[in-house]
Amino acid sequence: MYASSGIDLFDEATLADPYPAYARLRELGSVVRLEAHGVWALPRHASVATALRDPATYSSERALALTDPVNERLLAGTVVGTDGAAHARLRRVLSRQLAPRALKSLTLDLHEHARALVEALPHDGGFDAVADLAAPFVAGIVMRLMGLPDRDRALLLDLADATFDTFGPDNARTRAGLPHAEEMFGYLARVATRDTIAADSWLGAIHTAADHGDIDESQAVPLMLSYTVAGMDTTIHAITSALHLLAHTDQWAPIRDRAVPTDAVLAEALRMEAPIQFFGRRTTRDVHIGDTVVPAGEQVLLLYGSAGRDRDRWGPDADTFDITRDSRDHLALGSGIHQCAGNHLATLEFDAVLTALARRFRSLAPSPGQAPTRRPHNILRGWHTLPLVAA
Hints:
Layout: E1 4-5, H1 12-16, H2 19-28, E2 32-34, E3 39-42, H3 45-52, E4 58-59, H4 68-74, H5 84-98, H6 100-103, H7 107-119, E5 125-128, H8 129-146, H9 153-165, H10 172-191, H11 202-211, H12 220-228, H13 233-247, H14 252-256, H15 262-272, E6 278-283, E7 287-289, E8 292-294, E9 299-303, H16 304-307, H17 311-314, H18 343-360, E10 364-366, E11 387-390
Parallel strand pairs: 1-2, 3-9
Antiparallel strand pairs: 2-3, 4-6, 5-11, 6-9, 7-8, 10-11
Helix pairs in contact: 7-8, 7-18, 8-13, 9-10, 10-12, 11-12, 13-15
């Protein structure tokens, strides 16, 4: 026997507030069969952490998304969709650009860019933390580093959002996202060529790696997706989730006084609201999870959004945002060989935004009469609009 549930993680009500469903799944066990989709879910922090740190047993190949067409047509051969030597080969190319040493020179530029955007916000007036701050800041920086024209910023944000939507089950959101995901491939093949991309840009470095034989030429465009898809939306959602949580608590004063490190604030926000709510894996052998044996070849969903609220790991106040909590071992950015390659850049970007806001404003609060909005999404969790008032 095994624990099973009829919960549909992708219906509208659950997407709007998944945490009650996650709590029920955690009560059922370390692994739960989701009958609505024919997959297994890992809802607890311990079981998700174990899977992330054992890629030999929990493979990313043909497993990240819930449908075979997406795994085979869009994700095969990408850095997130490979393991072992193939993954390491692709990851090395990204690491040259995203390692802390490579990013160190960006710190001043990030802070200047964030300061300019914050200075342009109205004093004692409202602003949208997504449209006026997080999206232009993150996308503006990443577009320039990738070497892509800034005029295409809005297009790529839309395409990236739609590409992530294809990770879900065979539902309307996944089907609507598929042509946009394919458009992303077409855009990169057409625009990010050796003739148009600067050699010292991130995408130029991928072409250089292909020229040197570090990767195959056919892997160049799929590798570019690591920047164009994963490099913007997730950080935008992390920043705005943190600002939403801060605006609804009394924790702005320690931010303003620099009493709490910004990386601790980011870790706690990621624990509370994982920008990516799950990724899939596929078992390579029969594996014991608690009292259940999951057979080889089965798909399991690593529920990052649930692991972050697990009371067995975070205590009885797991649903409370507390910037003094030590949340460093949250799993929102993965762990092990598949830990988010851009986590160092995301930390620098978050520090720049929060520092600029804290220097200018003594308070941060929700905008009265203007409720924030989310766009229902198969895998991402973040704000579509986030009206705030700072003074």
